Amino acid sequence: MKNLREMKTILVVDDNQELRDALTEYLGRSEFHVLTASDGEEMWDHFHRAEPNLIILDIMMPGDDGLTLCRQIRQRSNVPIIMLTAVTDEIDRIAGLEIGADDYITKTFSPRELLARIKALLRRTQPAQGETVAHQLQFSGWTCDLIKRRLISPDGEVVPLSGADFNLISLMLEKPHQLLSRDDIARCIWGRDADPFERGIDVQISRLRKHLHDEERSLILTVRNKGYMLASDVHTV
């Protein structure tokens, strides 16, 4: 059994008491330290005190809704965020990804599926203990800092990235000039294949293009019905 210092802290933000209690019990059995909040005020109290490793954030809540809170969190932190959405609310799922959520899951989820998503996201956003990264990658005037997990523009401006943003640009920098299918991208940022009609991949690509000021889509190419490609040489610093 891990002690509290060794546990990853998960903050569950949802106004449903039964759901909060169920996730606290289930994730606690999986050796996570779970904190819960019913609204934004409680969330910020835990956020500042505990610095959680991951946040599970419901979209529909009284007061500030989950999308508002997600946007506010992203202005301060790159902590991984999983949005909880209603089954039919694709617009909300897309909106969540657009403002920086790393993944989403509908409220019909099984606890086992949520646990798998949490573990996959933590693996992809937090280096393993003892892991060292000793270089930066440069491309088309941009620099990707693999230690601080951030993007630096040709003008020296630091561009904060969410976990999903960083994983996507890292994947493309590992495979420049190579076609990446939607499943390749989904497995990298979410740890699963893309659903046939899922728009989340397109949203993540759009977010990354905005970060890179790639309005003409000349840096990240779309290969129709096949996937995407980084059209740049990459150099190790």
UniProtKB/TrEMBL annotation:
Residues bearing the modification 4-aspartylphosphate: 58
Coiled coil regions, renumbered to chain: none
Domain of life assignment: Bacteria
Record keywords, A-Z: DNA-binding, Phosphoprotein, Transcription, Transcription regulation, Two-component regulatory system
Tagged with keyword Cell inner membrane: no
DNA-binding region: 134-232
Record has Kinase as a keyword: no
Domain OmpR/PhoB-type: 134-232
Residues in Response regulatory domain copies: 9-122
Signal peptide positions (record): none
Name of this chain's protein: Response regulator transcription factor
Lineage per the UniProt record: Bacteria, Pseudomonadati, Pseudomonadota, Gammaproteobacteria, Vibrionales
